[in-house]
Amino acid sequence: MTDRPVWNARPHLLSIEEWGYKIDDYLENADGGEIIFNINPDDDRVYDAIYIGGGAAGRFGSAYLKALGGRQLVVDAWPFLGGSCPHNACVPHHLFSDCAAELMLNREFSGRYWFSDLDNKIVNMKEIVDMFRKGRIGPHAIMNFQSKEQLDMEFILNTTARIIDPHTVEAAGRIFKTRNIVLSTGSTPNRLGIPGENLKGVFDYETFVEDLDYEPGDTAVVVGGGKTAAIYGCFFNATGRRTILVVRSTLLKLVPDSEIRGYLIDRMKEQGMEILEYSNLVRIENDGNGRVKAAIIETPDGERRVETDFIFTGIGDTPNSEQVAATLGLKLGDKKEVIVDEQLRTNVPNVYAVGDLIGAPMEMFKARKSGTYAARHIMGQDVSYSPRDFPDFVHTHYEVTWFGMSEDEAREVYDNVIIIKMPPENENGLNVGLPASDRMMLYALEKPHLSGYQKLIIDGASRKVLGIHHVGCGAKDGFQYLCRMIKAGITVDDLGEMDELFLNPTHFIQLSRLRAGNEVLIDL
Amino acid sequence: MTDRPVWNARPHLLSIEEWGYKIDDYLENADGGEIIFNINPDDDRVYDAIYIGGGAAGRFGSAYLKALGGRQLVVDAWPFLGGSCPHNACVPHHLFSDCAAELMLNREFSGRYWFSDLDNKIVNMKEIVDMFRKGRIGPHAIMNFQSKEQLDMEFILNTTARIIDPHTVEAAGRIFKTRNIVLSTGSTPNRLGIPGENLKGVFDYETFVEDLDYEPGDTAVVVGGGKTAAIYGCFFNATGRRTILVVRSTLLKLVPDSEIRGYLIDRMKEQGMEILEYSNLVRIENDGNGRVKAAIIETPDGERRVETDFIFTGIGDTPNSEQVAATLGLKLGDKKEVIVDEQLRTNVPNVYAVGDLIGAPMEMFKARKSGTYAARHIMGQDVSYSPRDFPDFVHTHYEVTWFGMSEDEAREVYDNVIIIKMPPENENGLNVGLPASDRMMLYALEKPHLSGYQKLIIDGASRKVLGIHHVGCGAKDGFQYLCRMIKAGITVDDLGEMDELFLNPTHFIQLSRLRAGNEVLIDL
After folding, report:
1. Which of B90, B118, B234, B330 is flagged as catalytic?
2. Is residue A119 packed enough to be buried (19+ CB in 10 Å), middle (13-18) or exposed (0-12)?
3. Beta-carbon pairs below 8 A across chains A and B
4. At what angle do helices A137-145 and A125-135 cross, to 10 degrees?
5. What are the residue ranges of helices labelled H in A29-182?
6. Given an 8 Å threshold on Cβ–Cβ distance, is A445 in contact with B478?
7. CA distance A515 to A496
8. B473, A399 in Cβ contact below 8 A?
9. What is the pLDDT of residues A189-216, one digit of tens each?
């Protein structure tokens, strides 16, 4: 490790484009290229914190600690900051979801208007992966630029750190002294643990982006029933492939509202997805050349064999905790998550842990916020953090977003639950041209049942909003802000007072206004 | 009028589908079909208000008055409630914008991935208009269903009302007594007032939807520089037509932030749009058969003649006030708007006016809210309404949204204005793969300068948010909610505390968090 050449980035002001070329070179270089060394030689203070891992948690934590006047260092094995998100996680998840949405639209209008004829055609998947692999250098470059030139962070990249003790870290052949260590080493996709899982043709979200070097055939088998499996399964389906979801229990049980979940799953089936619940992939057949030939699936109706050269697993992630735990003697939970308190402190003094490493929810907001809260505590602020009452989402062919209670949950707690939804209860069911979010307009006009679904749940007594649920496009951003108001006790009357930007993806404002005049609220 | 047959809708519970067939029949019927009569025969109260016009203002006002326990009647000349919005205004604006966004995406990736080859191809426009014309019956049907079965409103449709005095209205051959009249007769697109404007081939947004019966050629001339002209111009451009915008002063001056406006206009030009500012269409040539042959345009560089069979005007709307003003003796403003106070009262006792009829802003939120505020005042509530400090938007090929101050406006008022934006100030300019809103993902990866632009403006002293600006997709809904928080004084620190749903179209939360640790804020 220390033999690798070290490039002192400090004196150079690289443009975003120059960073892009450098990162690309290092990633393409079989030797991994130089260590990127960006240490301030004029600062002789001991570090307040060294962040081990420069993903979302480490980078945001570092930036915050620096902003608070502390001295930080962040070390990452990749030649860029930002971690797995732009490299093979959140960003490709979104890219493939975006493709799934576009492809469903194209297929539904195949050969009509300006849309290409995709009937019985399979879209090249490797081409899309290659596009992402090439394009991801852009976000990497901007994050190095932002971290160095705008946020003035110190970092060492493209090498691993060795933790000697809670106050001592070695990186790039140098010893760094620190008051604290913040562990932010992320997580890794779980493996199946079944025969054949090492065959060529078995992927998770990381290896799909990194290793796909052939065009998969006409059948995809996807293992999992959560976010990753749904996102990638819908994408494979939208490319025109037969797609079979193998779900240990039930599909998308993380979606809290049963009507919303039903709508989603009906649409997935309508797009031709095959869903095997209470089923397990138990064995993968070898074609004799080390490649996947077939998936053997145990279902409630017996064993099924599906010929395929492409299997994708989306069965959760496990914190990258083993090595750091062994080095430092950290206490781990059942799922290998590092146990921390609400100040993000581990059981070892002066060692903090943040991000995916501390377990669920493995979401971006928690990674970033836990990183900053560790920084604040280290810098002497009296703070505590625990991710609670947050909005959530999943992509299928749609964008699905929710916050607060489901209808069933609300009915368990409140006597007088009011439901405002679109389409409304009516004998045409979903065959109604509303809601029509952006990007759903064509469906709304020709295929109304595809145009989305939304629901607002209100306590009739206090008139407060209890839950919001949306399927469509364009609502996700709003849920970030709306949830804060709901936590503060917003009512149906407050909603009705807002100024909608019509056509708005969520119809919550105008639908609330249609009912707000009622002293005794009723459904809509 | 009274000779027309009257169909008593009251006893019938029509499904949304049945309403659809009925509305379609009446619209297609040369005689206009029957009058739709939905009056409660068991209620012998005098009406609290009769709404003249059942568009957004009249329908929401009626619903609210009914909810408050009052008795209302709404009369509309169309066989459906909801007015021009779903018929030929907001909804088709959005449909064509949605098509423009999709078409730009398709053109930028023409013939690649799954996208059809649109190079040098013109997309059929009439086909899209026909789709809308057929599909709009859906929203009409749901609004009649909602108004009757869910909101229990009384209405008379497919006929005009005759106002006899502020307490007496005749409709469907019957006299109705009322305590008040609420005028909500909307507005009509302005006309050019130039030679040739009555030729076949000259359209505004109403006639484009109602009358287009041929496929326009390869050149579109669009007159106007505001929302309607931009929306339709971008759509015509995206279909592959040469599109010339003729703007009396400067294009899109309603977009407050100059950088945002510059970004938009650069993209319009990049898509090939020709923009003639400080120019006027002065004459339209006749081809000898009553059709448009050419547009004669006065520009700062002299007169230009453009051969075309298609001219579109988007030069604002004028309130439909003349007839009601003459009947009732109403006071009108310079732009023919009915003058009202903050209780929506006209100068004539017991006569209110709401919606587009009272002038700018002619936006959906104002129509609906003014309707409900008139209802509240009529029902004895001590309220006042005036549209102030609202979020706003326009569609180009993009969705553009803003609220609050522009950068220039902020700098005039505050000493220490902090700008947080994406892409950041950098020597690569816009050639940076962020922001990447939903639907912008493909651009972000391959054509970064198309992936959007966003800006957060903060007062460095108070740390409060002064303005927000966004170009991309998926932010419009959020601006509805975010603006309420900004009005309540939200700070950069509050933003940094929220839980983002990543990848979020607005990067405001995470970018704020990167700076929130700084005691003295600086740009990002």
Report:
1. B90
2. exposed
3. 317
4. 20
5. 56-67, 84-88, 90-108, 125-135, 137-145
6. no
7. 8
8. no
9. 999 999 999 999 999 999 999 999 999 9
